[in-house]
Amino acid sequence: MESIFHEKQEGSLCAQHCLNNLLQGEYFSPVELSSIAHQLDEEERIRMAEGGVTSEDYRTFLQQPSGNMDDSGFFSIQVISNALKVWGLELILFNSPEYQRLGIDPINERSFICNYKEHWFTVRKLGKQWFNLNSLLTGPELISDTYLALFLAQLQQEGYSIFVVKGDLPDCEADQLLQMIRVQQMQRPKLIGEELPQLKEQRVFQTDLEQILEGSEGSGMMDEDEEGLQRALTLSRQEMDLEDEEADLRRAIQLSMQGSSRNVRQDTPQPSSTNVASEELRKRREAYFEKQKQQQQQQVDPSGQVSYPCERPTTSSERLGSDLAGDSMSEEDMLQAAVTMSLETVQNNLKTERKQ
After folding, report:
1. Which of 34, 38, 120, 243 allows an S-S link to 18, with CB 3.0 to 4.6 Å?
2. In what order do the strands lie in the sheet with 161-166?
3. Helix/strand/coil (H, E, C) string of the chain?
4. In whole angstroms, what is the distance from residue 252 CA to residue 245 CA?
């Protein structure tokens, strides 16, 4: 509908908008219509003067304001009618008995001018479709053929005066284009007074929607932060649980080793196997074997011969010494070997004390 010329309301220049929307162009200005109104006023003054310039009616006429225009921009039906005569157009009252006797279907007409109080607007056929070109609307309003008669009847009930425009209207681009195509209107235009509150309401709604979306995004960020914090806390708890399990395991091993030592001899002081380093174990091993060697040298058979102990399998202590010499054992193996060596040392000492 962009090709349809449609002037929107400015001040009280509805008569100008009505004429230009009818003719589909900027044919009339307020100055031109004012000139027509002044010409009509002069013609009326001349007719009143025929009764005498000194008559009371003439003096009263001069004191009254113009009936064809006012300072707000209103123009009378006489101004509109005279403006259309320039284009060879004539206005006929739609609900007059003379026109009704003709029995013409409104669909077969070309255009109508409607007036209520001081407002004028045009209803015109462009191509094969009817349009309401009211300047108080935000744009042209499509009227179906079946609705046209009902629309005009409704206007009459509301007090409108309807005039049929007779004659050939000037050619226009919209009429030529709409002769070839038909248009559809998905949304009807609104009154200009209703558009502004609606736009304001839309802006307020959009602002509220943006605030809600921003709040949702902020809440989403808060949720993401909280989720990340929750994951960090979970991992921290898992690490703490793992450390606790490892500590419990070390304590269990230590208690188990201490319990084994107490079962051999509770009053025998035991070395702290958990704190024995590999170097200390090596030194203890060397001291132990040196002591064993000295004892063997001191033992003499009653016949005066030195007695040699019988051959025996390699002990865990000796295995520990050979392993430690190579430093190939793990820390747990060394720890277990140290415990075993301590137990063997205690057993050997007990045997020696019994022999003595």
Report:
1. 120
2. 90-93, 161-166, 111-116, 119-126, 129-132, 141-143
3. CCCCCCCCCCCCCHHHHHHHHHHCCCCCCHHHHHHHHHHHHHHHHHHHHCCCCCCHHHHHHHHCCCCCECCCCCECHHHHHHHHHCCCCEEEECCCHHHHHHCCCHHHCCEEEEEECCEEEEEEEECCEEEECCCCECCCEEECHHHHHHHHHHHHHCCCEEEEEECCCCCCHHHHHHCCCCCCCCCCCCEHHHHHHHHHHHHHHHHHHHHHHHHHHHHHHHHHHHHHHHHHHHHHHHHHHHHHHHHHHHHHHHHHHHHHHHHHCCCCCCCCHHHCCHHHHHHHHHHHHHHHHHHHHHCECCCCCECCCCCCCCCHHHHHHHHHHHCCCCHHHHHHHHHHHHHHHHHHHHHHHHHC
4. 10
For tokens 């009764």, name the residue: 51
Per residue in 73-92, pLDDT tens? 889 999 999 999 999 999 99
180 Cβ contact partners less than 8 Å away, ≥ 6 residues apart: 127
Q: Which residue is listed with tokens 């070109």?
A: 133
Place of tokens 């191509």: 127
Residues with active-site annotation: 14, 119, 134
Calpha distance 98→36 (Å, rounded): 28
Query: Which pairing describes strands 129-132 and 111-116: parallel, antiparallel, or unpaired?
Result: unpaired
Whole-structure pTM value: 0.55
Burial class (CB in 10 A: 0-12, 13-18, 19+), 316: middle
